[in-house]
DNA sequence: TAGAGCAACTTGTACAAACAAGCGAGACCT
DNA sequence: AGGTCTCGCTTGTTTGTACAAGTTGCTCTA
């Protein structure tokens, strides 16, 4: 583990533990440098991690302040429903309800960077949190990964982890579009809600380390079951608002 | 403007312009350094900006690749409905429907870091995009900023900009919780949708440069009018998923 | 007493150098 | 032909230095 990662971890722990209250000032770079016996540049790198996580605010000339105290999730925890559930102390379940190959639509082709009509694997999964159905996942996999997906256990808990262990595939980058939609007939039946009731929709595209698109998915959460959280600032911004359609 | 910001801008422009296609490789650090006549560290800082924006993917040993080509928004554009609307080529409207002082609830007190019961200013605004009502904003302001807010024109387009010009207040940090809810009676009436229809809810808290909470708000978008977008990766993560309630 | 201005402190930017670590392609071997 | 190995390339980490720029509190003055 890199030096700056270690320092960032120590500081993050201290903040989460409450050693530094929200609104409190962090020690100066010079003090942190001497405390951890590192160069100032290394300390800056460590603090930059916390700033990008939204835990710490910084502006030139003034001491850094603590903005939040919640541990942020790793990419894996965010991407994998099962890993996320485990990390927040819940039990995830899952079941494949349908899995079939078909030609890709034009919008899928764009998102997966393939030619329209090229074969893809469409999978419908129902996900449970502590037994309760909370999420309908409609995922489309590029054809080159389809065979590995088809070999998975239909009740497989973590697809991400399984794909890593069987074929060494790691998901590295993701794009997420978040909006609200009304439950369709199938959504309503699977989630046990009325048709037209609100669902939180997350459309995502995931790519491998090399930047090759692996899957795109339309995930619909039952209202109240899940919330997305983002911290941003003038110096670190990742949330973007877009007009519909 | 800093050297690294200039380099980041040049590279971003080149990507947005299409000089580097999605999936293509970026020049090496050494080449960029010589091209811009800068030290390698400066180039790294520039590229780090693009990585944090999700435009570029990077991993040790391999050349960097282009992941996306969309311009990301500034914090101001994200925070201010009016500035965002302008930047994406739409016209924003707004009207204050109600504005009154009242004691804060306990949850508001936590979010604004004040003592429960301390007076706050609650404002109800309806926002339009190109004439269409798309957003109901229920904002609570801390008492120290309330006088300035009360002096604003009820039809004021950009509250953010007005507060900056009148009292020099700048919003610097924000936390956002995003989920889906059913429209209540008031929401439905104002937005012109049926009761119970899906709305995208964004609860946000904004703080000043010094980390002092200024306002917290419950914003509800008509379904289909707005989408939030985030890019993340194993190395840059800001989106967090949370269990409901 | 209120405001201007200074001085110490703190973070931001830039450069240079050296080594570590991962990737990829071509050479080599079986 | 197919797999392995090595070597050069590229990005990642760390240290050190110097100066720029913004903040904050104190002092001095009107």
Automatic annotation (TrEMBL), chains A, B:
<keyword id="KW-0238">DNA-binding</keyword>
<dbReference type="Pfam" id="PF07702">
    <property type="entry name" value="UTRA"/>
</dbReference>
<dbReference type="Pfam" id="PF00392">
    <property type="entry name" value="GntR"/>
</dbReference>
<dbReference type="InterPro" id="IPR000524">
    <property type="entry name" value="Tscrpt_reg_HTH_GntR"/>
</dbReference>
<dbReference type="GO" id="GO:0003700">
    <property type="term" value="F:DNA-binding transcription factor activity"/>
</dbReference>
<dbReference type="InterPro" id="IPR028978">
    <property type="entry name" value="Chorismate_lyase_/UTRA_dom_sf"/>
</dbReference>
<keyword id="KW-0804">Transcription</keyword>
<dbReference type="InterPro" id="IPR036390">
    <property type="entry name" value="WH_DNA-bd_sf"/>
</dbReference>
<dbReference type="InterPro" id="IPR036388">
    <property type="entry name" value="WH-like_DNA-bd_sf"/>
</dbReference>
<protein>
    <submittedName>
        <fullName>GntR family transcriptional regulator</fullName>
    </submittedName>
</protein>
<dbReference type="InterPro" id="IPR011663">
    <property type="entry name" value="UTRA"/>
</dbReference>
<dbReference type="InterPro" id="IPR050679">
    <property type="entry name" value="Bact_HTH_transcr_reg"/>
</dbReference>
<dbReference type="GO" id="GO:0003677">
    <property type="term" value="F:DNA binding"/>
</dbReference>
<keyword id="KW-0805">Transcription regulation</keyword>
<feature type="domain" description="HTH gntR-type">
    <location>
        <begin position="1"/>
        <end position="69"/>
    </location>
</feature>
């Amino acid at each position: 583990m890199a030096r700056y990662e270690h320092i960032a971890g120590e500081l993050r722990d201290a903040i989460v533990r409450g050693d530094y209250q929200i609104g409190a000032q962090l020690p100066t770079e010079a003090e942190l440098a001497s405390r951890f016996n590192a160069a100032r540049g290394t300390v800056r790198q460590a603090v930059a991690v916390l700033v990008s996580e939204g835990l710490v605010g910084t502006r030139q000339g003034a001491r850094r302040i603590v903005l939040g105290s919640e541990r942020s999730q790793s990419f894996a925890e965010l991407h994998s429903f099962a890993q996320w559930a485990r990390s927040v102390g819940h039990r995830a379940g899952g079941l494949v309800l349908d899995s079939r190959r078909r030609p890709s639509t034009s919008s899928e082709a764009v998102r997966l960077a393939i030619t329209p009509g090229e074969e893809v694997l469409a999978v419908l999964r129902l996900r449970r949190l502590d037994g309760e159905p909370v999420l309908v996942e409609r995922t489309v996999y590029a054809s080159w990964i389809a065979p590995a997906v088809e070999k998975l256990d239909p009740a497989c808990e973590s697809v991400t982890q399984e794909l890593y262990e069987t074929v060494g595939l790691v998901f590295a980058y993701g794009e997420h579009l978040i909006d609200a939609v009304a439950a369709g007939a199938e959504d309503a039946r699977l989630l046990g809600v009325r048709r037209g009731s609100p669902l939180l929709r997350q459309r995502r595209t995931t790519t491998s380390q090399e930047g090759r698109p692996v899957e795109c998915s339309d995930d619909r959460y039952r209202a109240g079951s899940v919330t997305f959280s983002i911290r941003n600032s003038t110096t670190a911004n990742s949330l973007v608002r877009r007009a519909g359609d």
